[in-house]
Structures are given as C-alpha cells and as structure tokens.
Design brief:
Elements: H1 2-21, E1 33-37, H2 43-51, E2 56-59, H3 62-72, E3 77-80, H4 89-95, E4 98-102, H5 105-117, E5 122-128, H6 141-151, E6 157-164, H7 176-190, E7 197-203, H8 210-215, E8 220-223, H9 225-228
Parallel strand pairs: 1-2, 1-8, 2-3, 3-4, 4-5, 5-6, 6-7
Helix pairs in contact: 1-2, 4-5
Length: about 230
C-alpha cells in the first residue's frame, strides 16, 4: 500500500509539471502546491504520503482532522478544505494553518473572533461560487469585492487568496472556461488595495480536473483519490 501511495503521489507531481509546461496564459514556471486530501483515509496512509514528500494535507471535516492532528501534529501544513459550520470554528482554528472554505462574511467574523481568543492570525481563502451552483457554498462574483473589503477589515484574519470548485462535468474540458475566468478574478483581487492580506494563492482543481486547473493558473490543487485510491467509507 505504501509503495502505491508513494508512486501515485509522484505520478500526480509529474502530471502537475506536465500541466505547467502546457500553460499558455500563465507563467509556466509558477509553482504549484499539492495538497494531499486525506479525508476518510487513516493516519497510516497519511504517514505513507508524508514519507513520499507530502508537506500539505487537506481535510474536509473538523472532527476527523482534529483526531488526526492529535497523532500527526505539526509535521505537515494543515488545510481545512470542506464546508465549515460556525459551531465548528473554535476547533478548526486550533489546528488549521489555512482555511480554504470561507464562504461568507458571517463565517469570517466567527473565525476572526475565535482566532483573537487564542492570539492567532488565521490564514484564509475566500471561496467563490463562480458557477452559482445551489449545491455549493461561496461568494458570488458580483459580491466578491465588497465581501473581501469587509473580510480584510477583520483583525485576526490574513487573506491569502481565493478558492473555487468547478461543477462535476462529465466532460472535464467544460471546467476550462471557469478556471480561466477564476484566474482573471484572482489577478483583479491581487490589484485591490486590501489590508491584512498577502494574496498569492488560487486553490482550484481536484482529482478529476486538477491538470486543467493547473494549465489555467491554479497554484494550489486539492488531490485525494489520485493519491490514496478510492475512499474507505
């Protein structure tokens, strides 16, 4: 199993490099961070990935992440990538290095408040719902600038960039226009004069579409199944 995870991890890294070489709109040499998504995989599998070079792990659920953090600790950078409910914020802020899924001002306020309580500045990404899917959370494009201005006025947050999820199209090429548009939005946001921000992350792309996301400008991708195999429920 361990060898399989290590091989798959290296295979994903190789595919990321190949996707970077195919870029047309984006600098080919701009680095990409691979977040190994460990949801529903045990700490033994996580340790195999870490041994293969994984420095960043992503978790969807606070309870699961909290239990794994108790075992793994600060050996890796912890990314919380799933929808975060306000009643789980207190636990999430304790271990999360980066929260990808800040989808409302209300949630941002709760995170800032909790971070202040433990004397932390919490790094966050704001989730954008570019396709306006009812099944997904996120800020609509037309509300984004106003939301970002309010979020970056909160004292214990540091805005690091944006996150999005493409619809789960049968034909993965249909994701391309959305990713390309998202990269343009990311560039626009970098040009805004926002306090308490260091905007250098665009998190988009998962197992089925990460190569296209990288081609179109993603610099953080969230990959689980392609590294760990199908999830064990």
């Amino acid at each position: 199993m361990g060898q399989e995870i290590a091989e798959r991890y290296q295979d994903v890294l190789a595919k990321i490099e190949a996707a970077k070489a195919r870029r047309t709109q984006v600098p080919k040499d701009a680095a990409v961070t691979l977040v190994a998504v460990t949801k529903n995989h045990d700490t033994a599998a996580m340790r195999e990935a870490i041994a293969a070079g994984a420095l960043n792990v992503g978790e969807n659920r606070v309870q699961e992440a909290k239990a794994k953090f108790a075992e793994i600790g600060n050996a890796v950078t912890w990314h919380l990538i799933g929808h975060l409910q306000t009643n789980k914020v207190r636990q999430a802020v304790k271990f999360s290095d980066l929260i990808h899924s800040v989808d409302s001002l209300h949630l941002a306020e709760a995170i800032s408040s909790e971070a202040a309580r433990i004397d932390k500045v919490q790094d966050i990404l704001v989730q954008v719902n570019l396709a306006k899917e009812d099944s997904k959370s996120g800020v609509y494009r037309e509300d984004l600038q106003e939301t970002l201005q309010k979020v970056t006025a909160l004292p214990n947050l540091r805005l690091r960039g944006l996150m999005c999820m493409a619809p789960n199209y049968e034909d993965v090429e249909m994701c391309r226009p959305l990713f390309r548009e998202m990269y343009k939005i990311y560039q626009e946001v970098q040009d805004l004069d926002l306090p308490m921000s260091n905007i250098n992350m665009l998190s988009m792309g998962m197992t089925h579409d990460y190569e296209i996301a990288v081609e179109e400008g993603a610099n953080v991708v969230r990959v689980g199944t392609a590294i760990f195999g199908p999830r064990q429920y």
